[in-house]
Structure of ABC transporter permease:
Amino acid sequence: MKAKPLYVMLRILLLSVFSLTILYPLLWMLGVSLKDQKDMFARPWSIVPQEFLWTNFSKAWTVGKIGQSMGNTAFVTVVTLLFIVVFCYLASYALARIEFRGRKLILTLFISTMLLPIQIILIPLYRIQKSLHLIDSLWGLILPYIAIGLPISIFLMTAFLRSVPFELEESASIDGANRLQLIYKIMLPLSRPGLATVVILQFMTIWNEFPLALIVINNPELRTITLALSNFKGLWGMMDFNKLFAALVITTLPVIAMFIIFQRQFISGLTSGALKG
């Protein structure tokens, strides 16, 4: 019994150290974004700046065209997520809840595509995009993002839907519900944790994607946020990192907000799929 308080204290200590390793880079990024060049090089690891330069954010926003880039990225992300959520939910329902020949093979094929890194398909994908006149088009990003994001999304949703008791559908069928009613009125509300997991994972992936955007988008007016950040090297030179970090803070906020909003459903979706999938 005496060892239990010691175990609790040790666990709290380890979790506190782990939390600091996560929080310190974020606080350091915020601190650098508010410093000037002299303060940054004089005290590189300090979090609190000697003088708070909020103008770094306004300059990063206007000169770096962060607003326009975030708008392009938001459009690509929202449209991609809509297609991924609809397609992955319907496909996962069929793979998890309907018995048919070849469903294990189909799921295996989806999972196998997850092993292919995006760098392998960049060259053939670029040639396809060019032949379809999708270069310098946001749809040239949306369509590949949908194809790349579906396999992992279907894998997660299939595992989650398998954790939902089949008795719920059987009782609804006895009450007269048809297949469409089972899909949209019974299973869809129960799938919110799994769909939230898919949305958060795909949101972070699309928001931070760089290689495909680099070869598809050449028009400055269509740049996504990662391309805008890479352009700061040319705008401010090699040594002016303060405005770059200010832009990083701005572009990180939507990701943090997204996780805070869906964190409960995200954790519930991961644990349900892991424990019962």
